Amino acid sequence: MSEDQYNRPLEPNPLGGSIILFVIFMVLFLLGLYIVQWVDFTNVWQMAALIFLYAAAFGIPMTFLARNDTGSQHRR
Question: Which pTM value belongs to this model?
Answer without folding.
Answer: 0.61
